[in-house]
Amino acid sequence: MEPPKQQKQTDMLKKDVTSPGKPSENGEAMGGFRGRGGGRGFGGAFRGGRGGPRGGGGRGAVNNVDDRPPFEGGRGGRGGSRGRGRGGGGGGGGGGGGAFFDGKGFQQMDRISERLKQMAGPQVDLPPREDTIRKFSNHCRLWIGNLPLDITEDDVRELFKPYGEFDEVYFDKNKGFAFVRMDFKSNAEKARQELHLKEYKNRQLKIRFSSPGTALKVRNLSTWVTNELFEKSFSVFGELEKAIVITDERGRSTGEGILEFCKKPCAQLALKRCTEGCFFLTSSPRPVIVEAMSAVDDNEGMAEINVNKRNPEYMKERQSGPRFAAHGSFEFEYGLKWKQLYELFDKKKEMLEKELNDEKQKLEEQIEYAKYQHETELLREKLRQREENNQAHQQEYEQRQQQWEEHRRIEEERQARIEEELAVKYRQQEEELRRRQEENRQFMQERGNTLLKEEGGEELYGDHMAGWRWVSVIAM
User: RRM domain location, by residue (predicted)?
Assistant: First the structure.
């Protein structure tokens, strides 16, 4: 018989099956699938059994990029060697999961290119956008933590049902948290205020607004980029909830903007495309710089209940309350050093910003000069092409003239040959006609002579017969 411990481990291995990756805290599906390892060897009480077979390869993740099959996972580990002691060697570990691709691939890129082609041309006098309150926006998404382990998804729905509608409920029972997206921000605020720190099944609920990671920060915007152009330009990547160009107290653009997409893949696609390439919004070759924007909680902030009071640093820092340091004291001296450090940081930051502005101005002048040279080269190239085309047209015209002259000469020669052949044929016909007329004349002459001869013989014969008849009458 197997030892109880080895039997327990064997049962655990038998229950291990290939399972998909667990969702993250944002409710996003993870990538590949981990393969299942081989079974553990079974040894006797004294001699170790042979190691288990090689672990199975990881199952490939779903490929959303194109029509290719899922990517295969890694190969499983080799089975364990024969154990010398009690129990056998362990089975091989499962292979790694296949890569996960979240995107539409080349078809999505083609759609982006088509949308950008539709926007080609002047972008002036854009219509003002309509500010509407969007239902089920990402600003209405709540995170609920410290949930009881025996709670169900229906319990979560019943908990938020009195505060309005919701279209998304993600529940992770093992980790004790959930996500709920309410219909409007006001209802989400009301639910957070009433349910935060509320006792529920001997647990104190923790509720805060959750950022789904759809916000992007855009820098290096031109001063002529407005909210409308900003929104229209980035709408090629997906539907937007918010597109704002940040301005100062005078209403002038600061060169930065904030984007909020409706879906996280759209934000990731925009970040990827703008990072790998150069995306321009205006005629100026000034690419926008897109970076992920971290969520900042400016509503609830850092509450006292969220502080770890068991940390020794907490008790150390809270020993003294707010105060002003006395001049010449130890605290005053090192307080000045802290302030000097921040002043140095501010000065260096100011110098760096000034240097950056100078470099920007220098780069803009270089761009203008290079643009002028580029346009001049384009005009020269265009003029050279026009000259080449003109020469080609002239050569083609001269060639057509030569062909036309050759064709005219050939036609004239052919016409001359035809006229000569007609003249020869006409002369032959005239000669033939004269010959026939001469033959007819000779024939008629001969015929006339023949007839005359024949007529002369008949007259003699008639006279002779008349004489015979007269002699006969007298004799009678």
Answer: 140-212, 214-295
> Of 292, 281, 295, which is closest to residue 220 (Cα–Cα)?
281
Mean per-residue pLDDT for 359-365? 90
| 443, two tokens | 């024939």
Average pLDDT over residues 319-334: 88
Q: What is the DSSP letter of 249?
A: T
pLDDT of residue 14: 42
Tokens representing residue 43 in the block: 């040894």
Residue 247, strand partner residues: 253
Both tokens of residue 100? 């996960």
Q: Are 143 and 208 in contact (CB under 8 A)?
A: yes
Dist. CA 130–CA 243, nearest whole Å: 12
What pLDDT sits at residue 447? 86
37-92 pLDDT tens trace? 444 444 443 444 454 444 444 444 444 434 333 444 444 445 444 444 444 444 44
Interval 18-47: pLDDT, tens: 333 334 433 333 344 444 444 444 444 344
For helices 153-160 and 185-195, what crossing angle results, to 10°? 110
CA–CA distance, 112 with 272 (Å, rounded to integer): 13
**Sequence-distant (≥ 6) Cβ neighbours of residue 420 within 8 angstroms:** none
The type of residue at 453 is K
Q: Are 263 and 240 in contact (CB under 8 A)?
A: no
Q: Which residues of 47-70 are buried (b: 16+ CB within 10 A; e: fewer)?
A: ebbebbebbbbbbbbbbeeeeeeb
Question: Is 234:68 a contact under the CB 8 Å cutoff?
Answer: no
Structure tokens at 268: 């990731």
The whole-angstrom separation of Cα 53 and Cα 41 is: 9
> What is the mean pLDDT of the segment spanning 154-165?
88
Q: What is the token pair recorded at 396?
A: 């083609």
> Bridge-partner residues for 219, per DSSP?
289
**What's this model's pTM, rounded to 2 decimal places?**
0.55
209: which residues sit within 8 A by CB, 6+ positions away?
Answer: 139, 141, 142, 143, 188, 192, 297, 299, 300
Counts for the chain of helices (H) and strands (E), in that order = 8, 10
Cβ pair 238, 206 in contact under 8 A: no
Residue 3 CB partners (closer than 8 Å, separation 6+)? 45, 86, 87
232 vs 254: CA distance, rounded Å: 19
Question: With contact defined as beta carbons under 8 Å apart, do 201 and 148 qualify?
Answer: yes
